[in-house]
Amino acid sequence: MALNRDFLMGFLSGTVVGAVGYRLYEQNSGQLKSLVQSNVPTLSFQSPRGELTVEELVSQKERLEDLIAEKKVVASL
User: Fold this and answer.
1) Does residue 12 contact residue 20 with C-beta atoms inside 8 Å?
2) Where does the source fall among the domains of life (predicted)?
């Protein structure tokens, strides 16, 4: 299989872009992790599991349903 100039240029450009992207990712991995961690929703249980009231459970359920609906809307865009 003969390698032509276009193939070699594409391979070389892809390798360079991949290496630069990986280096940027490694340099900024701390910032990326903190960005991802700050956007992860947390469940706010104020009391241990056995002591939750029905109202608190319903409130958590509604909050989770709202988050799911938001994710579906964003995913459909």
Assistant:
1) no
2) Bacteria
DSSP assignment string, 13-72: HHHHHHHHHHHHHHHTHHHHHHHHHHTS------S-GGG--HHHHHHHHHHHHHHHHHHH
d(CA 35, CA 28): 11
Do residues 2 and 32 both lie within one domain? yes
Longest dimension (CA), the chain: 72
| pTM for the predicted model, two decimal places | 0.42
Shared-domain flag, residues 50 and 68 = yes
